[in-house]
Design goal:
Elements: H1 2-24, E1 35-40, H2 47-59, E2 80-82, E3 95-99, H3 113-121, E4 155-161, H4 170-185, E5 190-195, H5 197-200, H6 202-206, H7 215-228, E6 235-237, H8 249-271
Parallel strand pairs: 1-3, 1-4, 4-5, 5-6
Antiparallel strand pairs: 2-3
Helix pairs in contact: 1-8, 2-8, 3-4
Length: 279
């Protein structure tokens, strides 16, 4: 029993360290109001749930700011910027998340790849409703013709479910690689989160502390790395809050570990920008 309590205490200490890091963070670049983190990936991979899990971890209460659906169709239909309240109303953490419609294998379903590219460049305003049959253009009322450094994406995060890595279609993989190449050309740093590790691995489901020792999770990370070309040390396995009604230190340690990498990557990127971004 004492051994279990020691491990729980270690998880709490790790979580508190990550929480403090996020709380203390402020961009060094004074032109930057906040880091913009764009999540993309297949429909149902857990993008919105990850945003809620981050907010739950940081605000010390269950959160559902990003609406989450259950089923085959993408529940996210609008381009939205999610801010996380810090201490009191009107104060926010200096990083935001952009949630977008999921990718699907068919050309007339899911988000258009070109829409993601324009969003990364900062041309898409909040409130734009994605249309799988009609790509976003400069004629749309939500088109930002003069994006600033604060409008563009600073970190691109690929979100993939561990239960679908092995069965993801070539069409979706090609779309994700296309997005990654566009981000590369813009100099945007990239990483990935592997979600639903508990659903795909019984060992991890029984004890989340075993995630780093799980051969299954390790194998899925390697498969995702090979498929998308993302370095192994830039892929973070996580479990989003899903059915839980109480907070969990183990869940939040993994979530906050991934968040810290996003902050570090974004900070490095904006510090390397000499001139204001021009789209």
């Amino acid at each position: 029993m004492a051994h279990r309590q020691d491990k729980t205490s270690l998880a709490q200490i790790e979580k508190e360290d990550y929480l403090q890091y996020a709380y203390d963070y402020q961009p060094d670049n004074k032109d930057v109001e906040h880091l913009r983190i764009l999540l993309h990936g297949p429909n149902g991979s857990g993008k919105s749930s990850f945003i809620n899990s981050v907010e739950t971890s940081l605000r010390n209460r269950m959160s559902g700011q990003a609406l989450v659906g259950v089923g085959q169709d993408s529940f996210t239909i609008k381009y939205e910027t999610h801010k996380i309240q810090k201490m009191k109303p009107g104060t926010f953490y200096p990083f935001v998340f952009n949630d977008i419609m999921g990718l699907e294998r068919c050309e007339n379903k899911g988000i258009c790849v070109d829409d993601i590219k324009l969003a990364m460049k900062g041309h898409m305003k909040d409130g734009y409703v994605f249309n799988p049959q009609s790509p976003f253009t400069s004629a749309d009322a939500h088109y930002n013709s003069s994006p600033t450094i604060n409008d563009q994406t600073h970190v691109l995060v690929s979100v993939v479910s561990s239960s679908t890595v092995s069965i993801m279609s070539d069409e979706i993989m090609n779309k994700m690689r296309d997005v990654r190449r566009a981000a590369r050309d813009l100099g945007i740093p990239q990483m990935a989160i592997l979600t639903k590790i508990d659903e795909a691995c019984p060992e991890v489901q029984s004890d989340l502390r075993k995630v780093n020792k799980s051969k299954f999770v390790k194998n899925q990370i390697e498969k995702l790395s090979a498929a998308l070309g993302i370095p192994l040390n830039c892929i973070f396995p996580v479990k989003n809050y899903h059915s839980e009604i109480c907070k969990d230190d183990q869940i939040e340690t993994l979530i906050l570990m991934a968040l810290r990498q996003m902050i570090d990557f974004g900070e490095d990127f904006v510090n390397n920008i000499v001139e204001t971004f021009e789209g």
